[in-house]
Amino acid sequence: MKNRIFTILGALLIICSAFWIFSIKQNENKKRADALEAEKHFEQSISLDEKNESQEDINLTSDDIEEDDVERDDIQSDQAIGVLRIDKLNLLAQVFDNTKSGSLYDGVGVIESTDFPSSKLGTTCAIAGHRGGVNEELSFLNIDKLEFGDEIKITTKDEVLVYKVTGSEIIEPDDWSKFTREEYKSKLVLMTCHPYPTDKERLLVYSELQTNED
């Protein structure tokens, strides 16, 4: 009788574990699809802006410009300000303008007091993300594998930004002194908990925007 009970419990445990893994993968697939869609929409927005600029050069009427603006509004993704892509890690995530729990559940978020991602010099954008958990591979789980020169891309509605990794650092969780700005640089910092799976410290990965001169 006891053996039968243990067998049933073991089978239930296996079924529950399989369902949990399946749910996580389904969640990952949905978030990846949402991020891909947002990235596509942002790229379309950039194309529309470039098209508008070209049309203005040939005296496009204001009515036509307003019509294009309506189209551009229609393709904005919900609250996401960009999409983060790290091909080396197969990481794709929507970027939100805050680090609230809901934003970090759906993607990654810009840390308050730092800048939004842009090509403007003298800016530093710091982006926080979970390490593992419900987001698994779409989180910052493996950003410790990034090396000098690796590429990080962020697509916004205005531009495609390509950063190259310059280094990394492990800091205390209450150290907010690392997000400094430099006059002639546009910097991106990725932040997550460390060491995995604890949150005793923070791992920072530093990168700088690449220009045509680099």
How would you describe this structure to a colleague?
The protein has 214 residues and is an alpha+beta fold. It is 35% helix and 26% strand. It is built from three helices and eight strands, in the order ααββαββββββ. It has helices at residues 2-57, 62-74, 101-106; strands at 82-86, 91-96, 108-110, 123-128, 151-155, 160-171, 186-194, 201-209. It has an eight-stranded mixed β-barrel with strand order 1-2-3-4-7-8-6-5. It is globular.
Give a nutshell description of this structure.
By secondary structure, the chain is an alpha+beta fold. The chain has three helices and eight strands, in the order ααββαββββββ. The radius of gyration is 21 Å and the shape is globular.
List keywords for this structure.
single chain, alpha+beta, 35% helix
Mind sketching the topology for me?
Blueprint: H1 2-57, H2 62-74, E1 82-86, E2 91-96, H3 101-106, E3 108-110, E4 123-128, E5 151-155, E6 160-171, E7 186-194, E8 201-209
Parallel strand pairs: 2-3, 4-7
Antiparallel strand pairs: 1-2, 1-5, 3-4, 5-6, 6-8, 7-8
Q: What percent strand?
A: 25-35%
Radius of gyration: 21 Å
Q: Main sheet, how many strands, which sense, barrel?
A: 8 strands, mixed, barrel
Q: Sketch the topology as an H/E string, one letter per element.
A: HHEEHEEEEEE
- What's the number of extended β-strand segments? 8
Mean pLDDT: 83
Cα separation of the termini: 72 Å
Low-confidence stretches: 60-77
User: Percentage of helical residues?
Assistant: 25-40%
Shape: globular
Specify the structural class.
alpha+beta
- Discrete helix count: 3
Strand order of the largest sheet: 1-2-3-4-7-8-6-5
